[in-house]
Structures are given as structure tokens and as C-alpha cells.
Automatic annotation (TrEMBL):
Keywords: Autocatalytic cleavage, Hydrolase, Protease. This is Isoaspartyl peptidase/L-asparaginase. The active site is at T167. InterPro entries: ASRGL1_meta, Ntn_hydrolases_N, Peptidase_T2. Its EC number is 3.4.19.5, 3.5.1.1. Heterodimer of an alpha and beta chain produced by autocleavage. This heterodimer may then dimerize in turn, giving rise to a heterotetramer. One of its GO terms (molecular function) is beta-aspartyl-peptidase activity.
Amino acid sequence: MDPVVVVHGGAGSRVSPEREERVRQGVARAAAAGYRVLTAGGSALDAVEAAVAALEDDPEFNAGCGSVLNASGDVEMDASIMSGRDLSSGAVSAVRCIANPVRLARLVMEKTPHCLLTSHGAAEFAAAMGVPTVPGEQLVTERSRKHLEREKQKEAQNSDQQKDRGTVGAVALDRRGDVAYATSTGGIVNKMVGRVGDTPCVGSGGYADNAVGAASTTGHGESILKVTLARLALFHVEQGKTLEEAAVLALGHMQSKLQGLGGVILLDSAGAWAARWTSESMAWAAAKDDKLHVGVNLGDTRVTDLP
Ligand SMILES: NC(=O)C[C@H](N)C(=O)O
């Protein structure tokens, strides 16, 4: 089986020209990191964890360092990971002071009998696993501070569903034919303390099943939760739709029912893949057959050789 990895850097409003190249390079680096794991014989799970951790470490994206701030000015993050081999999954929600929530989600999957740990329970588990904490401020960027300030100045009920771009995610297929997904986010800016979005919820923030494929989603979390976007997209694949058609149908349903905007990356166990969004833009990158495909806005895909 030829390995494939696809990543996204979040659906949202148009990326400013000043940031576009950095965002493009960020998703390209993450896809290349995931692909290296796969070509060295690593598992799809290892690949999605590596790709998402790279994006969490990149301050351009709304996950890990660079996460948006909640109403109290703090970072609270959600993440999940799932193996399509046996449907095992792990997730964390509302976690603070952790550099890589996706790695903690993987530990929940592998070291506990549970699927999701939240808030202080997740923090206790992280400490027991020897996961280092980082000072909260280390995850806060100048950009996220200004973002919260701007948001607080606006109307309380802001219905712009594109304002929270930057959630990150990955799907991968390894040489053994196993698929996996991981998704990680700081959520939505100015959210209530304790708000949990779609990202840690299996079926909404992502899904993986070797019998169908894998999906990772981004966009307005409350809408994604209501339509279980990742599972909905894979349902359409099960019904015989192509990945492109499945993504368009699932996103179209969310938009027509709820006016919710977002994006999804999909791959199937044969190695086909798709990246679609209904927001203005979504940074994404895909690595397959030693080629790297990268895009941010509609119709601007660039293809280069991977080293
Ligand atoms: N930008 C995003 O994808 C936000 C994420 N889906 C959330 O609502 O928490």
C-alpha cells in the first residue's frame, strides 16, 4: 500500500497575504513530517500524531501554541485521535498548559480504558504520565491576544462563523493499509470558559475506520457537532460516493441546515484523498507518491517533489 497523509490548518476567512506563505509552509512541513513517518514504515497513528504535533508547535495555527483565547484570556484546548484498524480512540477537552494535546489524546487512547478525559482530570492524568506542563503564557501569541481584544469590542452575538480559523488535523494511510485521524484546536475565540467543541468528539471532529476511510474536520464547532460532520462525510463514502462528492454533500448539509461553514479532509483505504471547504479558505497539504500538494485558497494548489 502506498502511504498517504493529508493535513489541514483550519477553515476560515481569507488568510492575509502577509501570513499566506507562512501558513502554506506550515501545512507543507506537517504533511512532510507525517509522510516521513509513513515511508519509514511507521503507522498511520504515528503519522497523524507527528503531523498534528508539528502544527500545534507552529504559532500560525489555532492549536497548541497560537491557540485562540477564551473569554478569560486563557488557552483551553481540545484534541482527539483514532485508529481505523480497531476504532480505538482517545481525546482530551478543555486542557491547559500542555504543549501537544494530541500526544495526551494518544495516551488516553493507549493507557486508559476511556475515550475522553477533560479539564483537571486530564491534567492529573498528564502529570501521572510524565507529560510536562508549560506556563500558560507560552501558548499565547500576540496575534491571539489582539484577536480576543478585537472580538470583545464587537457585538456580543457575532454570527461570523469563519472567524476561528486555524484548527489543525491530519488523516493518513500506512503501508499496512491502516487509516487514522487526529484533530487539535484552541476552539473559538472568546468562548465561554469550559466550552468544548467538536474537535474531541469522535464522529464530529474526525473519524477513522479501515472499512471506509478517515476524516478530520474544521469550522464552526456547534454546527459540526449537530451534523456529526466527519461520520456524515464517511457515510456518503459508504453509500458509494467519491470522496469529493461525500465532502461536498456533508458540508452542503451543514450549510443548508445550520448556515454552518467549515472544511474536511478525507482519505479512503485505497489511497484516494480530498480536501474541501465552504469557508473562504482552508490551508491544506497532501503527500502521496513523493509529491506534495499544497493549497490555501480555491484553485491555488501547488505541487512539488518531496525530498
Ligand atoms: N476553527 C475550528 O475548526 C474551531 C473548532 N471546530 C471548534 O469549534 O472548536
